[in-house]
User: Fold these one by one.
Assistant:
Number 1:
Amino acid sequence: MVDDTTVETVTRPQIHIQNAVKSFSGRVVVDVDELTLGDHPIEGLIGPNGAGKTTLMRMIMHSTPLDRGTITLSNANGASDVVISDLPTYWMAPHGLVKSNQVIMDFDKLTILDSILLAVAAAKYEHPHRMFDEPQVYNDAEERLHQYMEYFDLGDPYRFAGSAGEKKLLDIIRCLLLDPKFLMLDEPTAGLPEDVTDKVMQIIRDLAASGTSVVIVEHDLNVIWNLSDDVHFMAEGSVLMHGSPEEIRDNKTVIEKYLGEGHV
Ligand SMILES: Nc1ncnc2c1ncn2[C@@H]1O[C@H](COP(=O)(O)OP(=O)(O)O)[C@@H](O)[C@H]1O
Ligand SMILES: [Mg+2]
């Protein structure tokens, strides 16, 4: 018998941010009183350049330390809450909290295959001279790795990434291979051709449908309107409003004020 309550009882991981503040050189760039991410499968985080979106996500990963405040991860399925703002960045990925990079992190000296393999190398193999000799690292991830390479038409795995867009894509694939339960994507489609953007959006939808919480920062608002169930609007370090894509989109005063008429 099909149990139709299953869908209702799936709980997604959530992130709760309280009084989180970050300043650089005495200037406050993030000041978020109260924010929950992960109430909806896919949430958009939008706002003008310099609003603090990247900094806020880096604070969640603790790759930017907070001046003050608390960030908590509520895990799905009854696991107890964890105050992640007390934990080091390396704790995050093995516990399902993963973020892609806005700025392209390229490994010019690694082939496409090696660059992706970095994500699946267990900590004990994270010595470059050892990990690529470890057949186990490769074998465990081989099938999924090749699925992604095929899906994205990456071709010869032993060549080097050719374009900025391709390097961006490798970063996204590394995130996917980490089996994220809470995935934050910082402008994932910037620099990607339209057909690849569509493929990335489809993967994000599938991932969210399987229970992963996704937060996406994106400059291309069409991606946000298409993908998000809920949108947070951030400006000058604070989250000013949230609502359905339609609500945010219809709030022309705010959008025009911050993003310019062309974006609405
Ligand atoms: N490491 C840093 N040192 C100094 N200023 C920074 C640093 N990182 C970010 N900022 C500043 O913080 C503000 C917010 O930046 P950011 O979080 O990148 O915004 P967004 O991602 O919304 O465009 C910007 O004014 C930026 O210049
Ligand atoms: Mg940014």
Note: Confidence is low (pLDDT under 50) at residues 1-8.
Number 2:
Amino acid sequence: MHVFPSDIGHSNGAQLLRRLLYLDPPSHISRQRKLPEMPGIGERAWVFITKSDGERSWAANQGYDDAVGLYYSYDTNVAQSRKIVPGDIAIIREDDYVAGWGVVEHIDVVPNQVKEITRCPMCMQTRHHRRTTKVPANKCDNRSCGHAFDDADAVRHLETVTAFRAHYANSWIEAARPIHFRELNAIQVTSSTFNAIRPLDARKVPAFLDRLSGRDVDLAVDIPSEEFLALVGGHTEGVVRRRRGQRAFRFEMLRRYGERCVFSGEQPPQVLEAAHLYSFARRPEHRSDGGLVMRRDYHALFDAKLLAINPKSLTVEIAPMLRAFPTYGALVGIPLQLQPEAIPSIELLDEHYSEAVRIFSHN
Ligand SMILES: [Zn+2]
């Protein structure tokens, strides 16, 4: 079942969100202010295309500093640039495959950036691509032109653009399986292959997200509006801080619980990870009773809330979809492997459990 909430625009949540977004913009960077016309979370979706070598042939210029999983950079030279708003779904394509997806949490807007633009010397348009094997290296993408030209012959000049950076780090979900970009073409609104940002057909996006994520995605459940408010407040710096604190947190959890997976007992330390019991975006702190040690694969399922701990019985519960896998099916009902002197916060376990139970209902 797919529910894409459209009611946030009329709720108190939207007012709060609006206030959050207008709050205290840094001196030269302003926050995206298009919220009054903002559609509901996930009502609109885009594919953002990035290249692992940093070079985008569509944009007639180079050097966008994308960080896949964190944010996407673009400017007013990119078609659709002004239409992207917080709440939109961003599916990231890196090279030939889809890397994952997130919901745009906020957009940095930096006006008056000077940028070198290259144009075709024949027709003066900016759309051209680089050829790796043929010379001249550049070929104009204007169908009525098609001129091929050397770098030295390109027309170069400086233009002033507004630069944007769309942040989606706190809601990022990594692709669970490889999906080639051709499948993405099937859910685009138009068959245009010119632009780095392309609108997607909102009716076809839910099924695509399910396949990409390896489970049913229900945005109303996965990212409820109050959760989205926390994501909007949480900066990308929060993600960086979380990563920085991760080693210390893991060491602390290993000291507290020993080199033992809470579900499967003793394991080699290389496969043991520290799992947070709560969303770090919502509560950016490391709490010593706010984590558990578990094997890597259990951690991934625990974070996806397909695996949870019943806070009353301290036994394992799993999403129905996991029952098909013998390794995980065998976990149902088993008690946690904990020492009585080191028990995690029951309140936090309960929070994780209530969210997981909602996810279980459609997975
Ligand atoms: Zn041309």
Note: The pocket of zinc ion is lined by residues 120, 122-123, 125, 140, 142, 145, 147 (CB under 6 Å).
